[in-house]
Protein 1
Amino acid sequence: MRKFGMKRAIVGAAIAALALNAPAAHAASATGTATAKILRQITLTNTSALQYATIISGATASTVQVTTAGVRTCNTGLTCTGTATAANFDVQGTSGAVVGISGDTTVTLNGSISGTMTSTLTYSAASLTLGATGGSFQVGGTLSVGANQPAGDYTGTFNVTADYQ
Amino acid sequence: MLRFFKGFGLLSILLLGAVTVPVQAAGDLLVAPTRVVLDGSRGTEVVLNNIGSEPATYRISLEIKRMTAVGGLDEIDEADVTPAERLALDMIAFSPRRVTLPPNQPQVIRVGVRIPEGTPPGEYRAHMLFRAVPDAAPAVAADPAKPAATGVSIALIPIYGITIPVIVRVGDLGAEATIGEAWVGDTPDGPAFNFGLTRTGNRSVYGDIEVTRPGVSEPLLVARGIAVYPEVGAREVSLRVPPELAAKLKGPVRIRYTEDREIGGGTIDEAERVVK
């Protein structure tokens, strides 16, 4: 164990200098004076937004749900138009790598004219094991629409991170 | 006819909404390497690259995360950190902390460590977060040209990023891990292969898991980058698998937990288990 610890100490300091797995499409490289080093990398790409599209509110409070598969359910009292989508994120990295997914579970949206709404958020997975072509995860949610919610464009931001252990 | 125009008005609002709200927020990113271990005073470099199609401003910060018994990483508010976690935040230095990059432009982030004299031996860890700063919110003054509508349009903008652990080891540390029971279970998202990992010692263990069937050379399952951090003595590892693989995994298997290939790939623990 002690011997191992020593070895780890030496290699640990030079960890970034080691060439390892084959580079993927977007491999990052940093150039030294004489050698090129290839680092393990991760990429995160947002390919679609979480869209509830357009909703016409009614006289009673209600909800609209978009599942992580992008299926919208428009509940009693509301009229929904447009195309709803779940947010999609692509993750690329070493094949077999386990990547954690974390993020906000609620978000507040502010109206362009007045009013606020809240949405809960659901994630398709708490962690991903990347395959040869990477992996992806989706974010859906449930939006609470008030009775006679003021019209306008509502915007909110939420945090999502892909976490390496 | 009137109804038709009303419908058309609604449609145009919808189209306007679609135009003003960017479908794809800028901020796609690449980070390499995916884990940093620092021994002593030598620093290292982490590469950040803008792989999106628009220029983006990224912020780099450190945060404390604690591992949970099921292997998740819980973010801890700066107000709630322990003295050792505070020390980790203080001893890791990095630069720059904010950078604007055109598409496909990499930036090197220098990471250094300054261990104060008298720091007790141990493993100190923070997680480095790379995240795009959202564009300044567009002025959303009420547009008088826009007809009053009964509809609301929604835009949810993700602020997304990547975290990697930055680990500082002080003193001569060691750790071992033991593989526990293994089973196939159901999660709300489908079947998963689960097993326990118990850790002893004064540092984290980190490595790759390979599950093989005795007599078959091709592994059934490979999962890389599984850690047990010092704040937990044991964790459950839950790996989602397709249903056909879940069925195959049941029965006798050999589970091997090896050190990262970067540091030699030595075996941490190996166990024969009958998967239920």
Note: The longest strand of chain A covers residues 152-164.
Protein 2
Amino acid sequence: MPVVSVDGLDVAYNDTAVLQDVRFAVGSREIFVVLAPGAAGKSVLFRHLLALEPPPPGAIRLFGQDLGALSGRRLTELRRRIGAVHQQGGLFSALTVRENVRLPMAELTDLPPSTTDVMVDLKLMRLGLHAAADRLPAELSAAQVQRAAVARALALDPDLLICDDIVSGLDRQALDEIKQLVREVRDAFNLTVVLMMPHGEVAMALADRIAVLDAGRLIGCGAPDELAASGEPRIRQILLGEQGEAAGPGLAGLFAPLGAPG
Amino acid sequence: MPAARPPEALSAPGRPAARLAAASTRLLARLGSPILAIAAALVIGGQILFWVFLGWTRKQPVRLRLAARHVVETGLAGLPLAGLFGLAIGLVLALQIETVLDFADVLALLQQGLGTLLVREVAPLMVGILVAARSGTSLTADLGAMQLNREIDALVGMGINPVRLLVAPVALALLVAVPVLTVLLTGFSLVTIAVYLDLTRAVPPEPLLIAVLGAIPPGDLVMAFGKSIVFAAIIFTVATTVGLAVRRSIGAGVTRAVVIAITTILLANAVLTLLFPG
């Protein structure tokens, strides 16, 4: 049984199709990359995989359970088996790295505080974050932010790790670090990993299989070698190109009077 | 990322409560329409009250320690301001009372009107405005920043209800702090009046205070308490609704929240006074 199975996911906002008939399945312990340039629908897919948007019934199954049909409580239980890394980390900016990793454990388990502390320290050590444990997210480098976000996602020992774009804005050294980190956590925590990214080169180096998403449609899916050998020019273009993404939310309100695009 | 960000779901569909939550967040995305905004606010207000009073039935009680910290933040830190408000209001009232001092039996006037005016109308309203400006804005700004930074998404993705974790403690704190501040502001005002009249006109303060306090009917106290609770609920509901709907500018959200909260408090005050004229 696949860990993740997406079967004909259609998403449209205001009659504009964002995702069209997306289908793929991810097996246990696989590193699966959804490779897509800029605004191809990665984040929308990510939000649906986490049920942050209500998915249509039957379209997404995680561990065999239909996300669109789960009740509130059963969904909460399912979410405990999933770790998520959001774009730009999504770390709680008012909390230190240690507190960020501690929060899911403190809120969602009945462990005594002393046990939680020990487990948090172990996680931080495992991910090489011990020195940064008492810093706030704003004081971390971009690579450390992603590392801390992964640490928090792994706090409850999930079976599945889903990451929105965790490579944009990283330099080469940080990219290598992230590649290594993803492989390490997959092996150490026995995880299935689904990554969204715009970065063909990293995807080729990291993934067991890649799904190529372009303008809301899957245009190819397979092992990196198979895709590289594909005759489709668009697939090759996305695989070889390094498309960055626009910066995230900023002070749009401050600039709106200047006529800058929001 | 598409230009128009889709609405966030606080929870996914399924159970009625969860479906209601999802509906409320869809409404949040279109806060432009006042009717939709009111509907969203009612749903969110209901959610907050659910977590405050019934969270323990889901084994997710409000973190009392967090709530206590917020009581300190809103209550204790708001104390000097409440004092200043009380002083200023008391002074103005004392000056006005002084002008009629020679014409009538002031003690009777104070007994008849002053207590009621202060306790029922001025104090709850002033504290409502003060807390909306101090604590409501900070809740809106925090939620807005967390929304933009995807921290709210992160919480929901973990299966932690952001309303329960972030809003319920503040809500509980406001339900305690607003009535307390109202009592304190009333006290500050009365003492200011007594001291001023003692200094300028040698009106003995003790009998004055005893007479005024003794003449406040229990109905006025109930009304003051009721208004405080209603205003607290307006503040945390508006702050949360607007904060979670922030998509671009936190500054615009905070402005919007404080304007809506204060306007709603003034309207609610008028309606309550009309319904229960005492």
Note: Confidence is low (pLDDT under 50) at residues 242-257 of chain A.
